[in-house]
Amino acid sequence: MYFISMRSYGMESRRVQTYSVSDFLAVLNQTLEFAYPLVSIEGEVASFKVNQGKYVFFDLKDESGTVGCFMTVWQLRTPIEDGMKVVVQAAPKVTPWGKFSLTVQAVRPSGEGSLKKSFELLKAKLEKEGLFDEARKRPLPAMPQRIAVISSTQAAGYADFIKIINTRWGGLSIEVAHTQVQGEGAADQMIRAIKHLTTREELADVLVLIRGGGSADDLAAYNDEKLVRAIAASRIPTLVGVGHEVDMVLADLVADVRAATPSNAAQLLVPDRREIIDSVWQRVRAMAQSAEMAMETLRRDTRHQLDTMAEGAMRAIENQLREVAQSQNTLHAYDPRRVLERGYALVRGDLQPSGMIEIETQSVIAKAEVRDVQQK
Amino acid sequence: MSSKNNKTIADKRAELSGLLAWFESDQFVVEEAIDKFKQAEALARDIEQELMEHKNTITVLKQRFDQGDA
């Protein structure tokens, strides 16, 4: 509220008001506030400096004009430097010293080059702090039951995530914090959602931030320093799936696990029930195969035993037959008829002088009388 | 996910793995194999049914996040 003391001088054609300097500045600021409560201005940053670690000063310029800007360090959510093209949201004001300046509430890089530069600056800063270190990364729960999601429920990426997760697994409790996912205020909304979801008594098993594809400017909220720090500070493991596979935002780097897309986030969170069912039946089939193999082995062993027994019996019979044949051969060799066949004769009877004997050859039997017997 | 007899899907899958291990082990005996196989088939059917039946509960929080301290 400004109190304006005013003196009027009567003039013939018109009345001119006279103000004190302070009053005039107050009126001017009131007029500015009424006419331009908040303006959005795009320009190039020049003479950027931070005083006392708290106050940020820079000029915003284009080809033919320059305007001074002021803001506090905590309002600066993304690093900027001279030469970067930015869009500021600011309230125009005239200082008590009569200098016109913009009191900046928010600044964001504009254009691909500036977005990239800002991304690299913040990335280097946070990397130096160790926010992206592998050692900080926590594994996602193997089988989460409660999943907290931060996204816009109207976003295509959200629909993809829900569709995939519903197809893959059931019985989950999914809580969704609906927030803006792009534009002014998106980062703050997501930060509030993170705070809400990670400071409750009953925590979810995992916190998921998802958003579908878009331009670098659309995804810029996920490069917001405060948001990145809020993700890093989450009490529960975080999974970030923003944009397409080629998109990389700082929220990806700070998350415990990065998903290439929202659909991929769903794939990383839960197994596919169809794959599990296939694997379950595969095991049952493996059991059947094991049983068949065991039966086959048993059959083969039994057959082998029977074969061994039969072979043994055959061998024993053959041995016996061979022995019989050998005996037959021996008997055959001792048969006197074989001797007669070779030309010998068999003599039987009274072998003394005048004794009668029988001489048997192979073909005849002759009777003869012994004339003489002499000892050899 | 847990069934009526309070066994979770993970419990049932572990049980199935145990049965498979038995089939592949030296403990396998033909006389018990049929019963164990029937048990495995029943478990597999149970797991399939349970996995396909369960639906997710999705709750969009009523809380608004467009106001307050970030």
> Biggest interface between protein chains, with counts per chain?
A-B, 42 and 38 residues
Mean pLDDT of chain A: 91
Residue fraction in strands of chain A: 15-25%
SSE succession of chain B? HHE
The overall strand count of chain B is 1
CA distance, first residue to last residue of chain B: 36 Å
Termini Cα gap of chain A: 173 Å
Q: Label the overall shape of chain A.
A: rod-shaped
Order of secondary-structure elements of chain A: EEHEEEEEHEHEHEHEHEHHHEEE
Q: How would you classify the helix and strand content of chain B by structural class? A: mainly alpha
Which whole number gives the mean pLDDT of chain B? 87
* Global geometry of chain B: elongated
Number of strands of chain A: 15
Query: Major beta sheet of chain A, specifics?
Result: 5 strands, mixed, barrel
Number of helices of chain A: 9
Uncertain spans of chain B: none
**What gyration radius of chain A follows from the Cα positions, in whole Å?**
55 Å
Radius of gyration of chain B from CA coordinates: 21 Å
Number of helices of chain B: 2
For the biggest sheet of chain B, the summary is: none
Quick synopsis:
The complex is a heterodimer of chains A (376) and B (70). Chain A has 376 residues and is an alpha/beta fold.
What are the defining features of this structure?
heterodimer, A: about 375 residues, alpha/beta, 5-stranded mixed barrel, 5-stranded parallel sheet, 15 strands, disordered N terminus, B: about 70 residues, mainly alpha
How would you describe this protein?
The complex is a heterodimer of chains A (376) and B (70). Chain A has a 5-stranded mixed β-barrel. In chain A, helix 6 (250-254) links the parallel strand 11 (238-242) and strand 12. With 376 residues, chain A is α/β, with parallel strands linked by helices. Chain A has helices at residues 21-35, 112-129, 156-168, 186-198, 225-232, 250-254, 262-269, 273-334, 336-341, and strands at 7-9, 16-18, 39-51, 55-61, 66-72, 85-94, 100-109, 146-151, 173-178, 206-211, 238-242, 257-259, 346-349, 356-360, 365-369. Chain B starts with 8 loop residues before the first helix and ends in a 10-residue tail after the last strand. The longest helix of chain B has 24 residues, at 30-53. Chain B is built from 2 helices and 1 strand. Helix content of chain B is 57%, strand content 6%. Chain B is elongated, with a radius of gyration of 21 Å. Chain B is mainly alpha-helical. In chain B, helix 1 packs antiparallel against helix 2.
